[in-house]
Design brief:
Radius of gyration: 19 Å
GO molecular function, one term: metal ion binding
Number of domains: 2
Helix content: 40-55%
Keywords: Hydrolase, Membrane, Metal-binding, Metalloprotease, Mitochondrion, Mitochondrion inner membrane, Protease
Number of helices: 10
Organism: [Torrubiella] hemipterigena
Shape: globular
Number of strands: 5
Strand content: 5-15%
Distance between the termini: 21 Å
Structural class: mainly alpha
Protein name: Mitochondrial inner membrane protease ATP23
Order of helices and strands: HHHHHEEEEEHHHHH
Enzyme class: hydrolase
Length: about 260
């Protein structure tokens, strides 16, 4: 049971069918004279500027976003193909979809959509990217430009489907108006049950080879980062504190699975 949720499950409503899942962050404006990136040049000329050190980190950010725009149609087509394959053949996606259906929810191509997701550049130079998102009013957003391969999309989709199941089961307080415990719990569960923190993913994709507590550390880190990104959260310190408060109960809750599947 999610912390702070009622012991009686609310009547579940279907996840709304809407092709505009999630809100896109505002895209920052590039200044070629300052960043070294000029969209009027050929891509290889800009790439040469990167190799020769003539482009700032901000310029490289804008270059990457520019290339994502150029390849948006291709990326979305690939993402759509992966999504359709996963709904047909992936054991974890099919299982979660069945459990969501048991709660009168519905997820399909109408509300699991692939879109280009612009990144967000902070004043301190930090870049925030996302691979997906869940909206109780719209459905699931899959960020086509951030998809590395089908396995990566499977982890992302499973993560967001855990959020969908949690919402239908417990009516999660996504805004954090009351407190951030709901958000903390569902982020712990999504990172734990999606497979994104399995040892092979940590080792071969993220270069983390620690043998002890690696899975728990990954779940805690990713959940903390997700909670810290919410508008109601002041900083990572507050996010870590909330994660600690709900960790024992939420980390031990593997529903709708009998145990950690991946």
């Amino acid at each position: 049971m999610a912390p702070g949720a009622s012991s009686a499950a609310p009547s579940a409503q279907p996840v709304a069918s809407n092709t505009a899942a999630g809100e896109r962050p505002k895209e920052v404006v590039n200044d070629p004279a300052r960043t070294g990136f000029d969209p009027q040049m050929k891509w290889w000329m800009n790439y040469f500027r990167i190799l020769s050190g003539q482009m700032t980190n901000e310029g490289m950010f804008h270059y990457r976003e520019w290339r994502y725009k150029v390849h948006e149609e291709r990326d979305c087509k690939r993402c759509d193909d992966y999504r359709d394959w996963l709904f047909t053949y992936s054991p974890v996606v099919r299982f979660l979809n069945q459990k969501i259906g048991d709660l009168n929810g519905k997820l399909d191509a109408s509300n699991v959509v692939c879109r280009r997701c612009p990144a967000r550049l902070e004043e301190d130079g930090q870049v925030h990217r996302q691979s997906g998102g869940f909206s109780p009013d719209h459905g699931i957003l899959l960020c086509a430009n951030e998809v590395r391969d089908r396995k990566h999309l499977e982890d992302t989709l499973a993560h967001e489907m855990v959020h969908a199941w949690d919402h239908l089961r417990w009516k999660v307080d996504w805004t954090g108006d009351k407190d951030l415990k709901h958000a903390a719990c569902t982020e712990i569960r999504a990172s734990m049950l999606s497979g994104e923190c399995r040892w092979t993913r940590e080792a071969f994709t993220r270069g983390k080879w620690k043998l002890t507590q690696q899975f728990q550390n990954c779940v805690r880190l990713r959940a903390t980062q997700s909670v810290a990104a919410r508008p109601r959260c002041k900083d990572e310190a507050q996010a870590a504190q909330v994660i600690d408060q709900v960790w024992d109960s939420c980390y031990s809750d593997t529903r709708p699975f009998d145990e950690i599947y991946r």
